[in-house]
Amino acid sequence: MGLSRLSPELILMVAESLDSEKATEKAINPLTRINRFFYSLLNPFLYRYHARNDVELSALQHAARRDLPGVIEHLVDAGVSLHSREAWFGYSFYRRPKYDHPIVLAANSDHANVMETLLDKEELTSGLTERHFSDMMYWAVQDNQAKAVKVLLDRKVTDPWTDDPIIASAAERGRVDIVNLLLKDADERIKTGLLSETLRQRGIDEALLQGIGTQNPKNILTLLLKAGADVNFVAKWGRIHLVPLGEAAHYKHVGAVKLLLEAGADPNLMKNRKWGPLARAIQPWHGDITYSWDPPGHELEDPSRQPLPRPMSPSVREIFRLLFEYRAKPSRAGGSWALHRAVVYQCYEAAHLLIDKGAQITPSHVNDSQQAALNQAVADRDFEAIKALVPKEWSTDA
């Protein structure tokens, strides 16, 4: 007689005989696979097996990956301890959860229901620190897991506005939905006294700067400007000062430059002949082939390989037009470096335009007679003389 024809009482007796200290998971699993009746009847034995034999990691991993919050409930009811295995934690100073911790797997898979189920278990929340949840938030942002981010925000298990505001990372990767979630979270925290206006402002200002480097920054910038981001925010790292308008010019984002100028960005904010949006616009970057003809840092030893004069790219031409329309002054918006870079990169159309607007090249290392010769070379538009008088590293290595 087949097993499927046995009475439930006899089936349970068979399972009880297998459900011993020496039994293995393989002994019960085949019975559960006969049909759905056997599965529902014998599944509690599997849960107890996992709890008794300390193999809860694989079971909880499976449930977290497959978005099975009900299975997690059964495992916990059967006695699985969410923190009984040292294997779930790394041995770093902060003892962060390993990548295969169930709640980390759930967050990485954007399984909000599983995260909610795990967070409802007191032994889990008592075993994890804010640093753990901060890491989960970071990776959820990296992977664009908006549901996971919302769960962590709603539970208030971590503060995303201290230290390095997570909104800057979200903006840097163009995560519009997550940025929106974080802005709403900030408003709620301010109302309840959990966040200061100062920290919120710092976060959205940094996000504005970071969001410019995305492929299509318009939506991110519009959202952040509407939230009150400072369009003239200056980020300082030692001698390096970065501003949103300069970054938009650097990445050749014409739409972003226009949006920032319309929002009140000051093209003369840096008040410097070298630093400014004019210089940033004429500076190549790793994703731009307008001026670079060899990998960055590569020296052209063969003169025959020197490029011919290059036309001004449409994006740089339009950025220059916008900057000058909004009264950019070469003496205050990086015109000196911009002119020198245009000469070095042999983009002579840009060089002529800058000279027409009054740009001068004024390196600090030259004496009065050399500066006079340089001024004359600029007036004569003698670009070869300019190259001879000022080494290319003066502006291009900055």
UniProtKB/TrEMBL annotation:
<keyword id="KW-0677">Repeat</keyword>
<dbReference type="InterPro" id="IPR036770">
    <property type="entry name" value="Ankyrin_rpt-contain_sf"/>
</dbReference>
<dbReference type="InterPro" id="IPR002110">
    <property type="entry name" value="Ankyrin_rpt"/>
</dbReference>
<protein>
    <submittedName>
        <fullName>Ankyrin</fullName>
    </submittedName>
</protein>
<dbReference type="Pfam" id="PF13637">
    <property type="entry name" value="Ank_4"/>
</dbReference>
<feature type="repeat" description="ANK">
    <location>
        <begin position="240"/>
        <end position="272"/>
    </location>
</feature>
<dbReference type="Pfam" id="PF00023">
    <property type="entry name" value="Ank"/>
</dbReference>
<keyword id="KW-0040">ANK repeat</keyword>
